[in-house]
Amino acid sequence: MSDDRSTTDIYWEPDFTGTSGVPVVGRFLPETSIEIINQTVATGGYRDVLFDFDGTLSLIREGWPEIMIAMMVEFLLQTPDHESEQDLRRTVSEYVMRLTGKQTIYQMIQLAEEVAKRNGAPLDPLEYKREYNRRLMRRISDRRESLRTGSAPAEEMLVPGTLELLESLVARGMRIYLASGTDEPFVKEEAELLGLTPYFSGNIYGALDNHQSFSKAMVIEKILTENAIRGASLLGFGDAYVEVANVKSVGGTAVGVASDEAGRSGKPDPWKRERLIAVGADIVIPDFRECGVLLDYLFDERA
């Protein structure tokens, strides 16, 4: 870890704040859905590539917000001074989505604060997180089992083009890392179920119960320090604001993945796209179907 950045700077994950002044509509590479937002982005010279997991590569957990929101509303309805269920759902939806991209524990910290605001007795945020994980596992157990038994191909639960992209990066000699706000044991297990583990050569990181011991910024610091590279050599892919902001903060290139998780339509999710642009994504794509063209652009290999 470099001396000029405090431990707090490295572990703390900031809330979403839109900071970008780039145009709302970028330039599309000809006949593609690849939107170039930063027209002056440097291309080529990359050595390391960082990926988010859920929504960027994996679709196993698609639909998680409805599980989390329903659970939080249920807990808040038990407080003495709660609003109507409709108003609570509106409040919870706002902060759950605002904090999306951070470790799950931050949403649970917010839940504890909301319970206290309504004169309830909040549980430890870790208890809320464990209950959320229990409910989510119940929701996605069939998906995980179908992957485990081979009754469903991994491609059905991957953002389209994922395997082609990873294979192309490996062929270019890139070191590839994965950093997720989901708990590390789940990330490693689900990466294995999807057949992604070999691409990362052990470089898979996820949230820990002690949330101050992990952040995506920490993983980036590790990449830069251990490989003695500058931030400009880092390329990042993510569907949430945290990883995009973290990559940009060290001078790397950030590709925002505005994936349509439920429909796999090949069209960008408007909500994701707007947030990704707001925190400085250099490029926005809906998925990896056009990864050949994208990598030719990024590595300055256009004919």
Features:
303 residues; Rossmann fold; 12 helices; 8 strands; disordered N terminus
Q: Can you offer a commentary on this structure?
A:
Helices cover 44% and strands 11% of the residues. α2 runs antiparallel to α5 (125-149) and α4 (104-117) packs antiparallel against α5. The radius of gyration is 19 Å and the shape is globular. β6 (234-238), α10 and β7 (253-257) form a beta-alpha-beta unit. It has 303 residues and is of the alpha/beta class. The protein contains twelve helices and eight strands.
Topology (elements, then pairings):
Layout: H1 7-11, E1 27-28, E2 35-36, E3 48-51, H2 64-76, H3 85-98, H4 104-117, H5 125-149, H6 162-171, E4 175-183, H7 184-193, H8 197-200, E5 204-207, H9 216-227, E6 234-238, H10 241-249, E7 253-257, H11 270-278, E8 283-285, H12 291-298
Parallel strand pairs: 3-4, 3-6, 4-5, 6-7, 7-8
Antiparallel strand pairs: 1-2, 2-8
Assign an overall shape.
globular
What structural class results from the helix and strand content? alpha/beta
- Amount of beta strand: 5-15%
For this structure, what is the CATH class of the largest domain? Alpha Beta
Query: Cα-atom Rg, whole angstroms?
Result: 19 Å
